[in-house]
Amino acid sequence: MTQLIWQYSYLQVLDFLTTIAFLVNGVREGNPVVRLALALGPNPLESLLAIKVLALMLGIYCWRLGRQQLLARINLLFALVIAWNLVALILGSLHPHSV
Fold first, then answer.
1. Residue closest to 27 by CA, chosen among 69, 86, 70
2. pTM of structure
3. How distant is the alpha carbon of residue 14 from its chain centre?
């Protein structure tokens, strides 16, 4: 596998973990598709895991089609989302009711 797909997979794991941290702290999911899956699924952890498995499958699909530029852009987007999530978690821990 190339570096891009490894980065994509790692970013998906980090997004999974930051989403769990938000849910544990009572923060509502911002992505409407993921929010719907969380509401409809048997439990939030299984629903989130299913979403991430689908995301990994889409990433592998893009990689196999040679869509490296698209994958690089998605990696950048997820890196920014994860950074935002971490900042929000840190600020939320400083001011528990402000997130």
1. 86
2. 0.85
3. 7
Is there a contact between 78 and 10 (Cβ–Cβ < 8 Å)? no
Residue whose structure tokens are 């994509």:
8
User: For residues 28-42, b (16+ Cβ closer than 10 Å) or e, as one string?
Assistant: ebeeeebeebbeeee
Residue with tokens 């930051």: 18
Distance in angstroms between the alpha carbons of the first and the last residue of the chain: 38
Using the predicted structure, report yes or no on whether residue 97 has a pLDDT greater than 90.
no
Predicted confidence (pLDDT) per residue in 28-67, tens digit: 888 899 999 999 988 989 999 999 999 999 999 999 999 9
Q: How far apart are CA 1 and CA 39, in angstroms?
A: 34
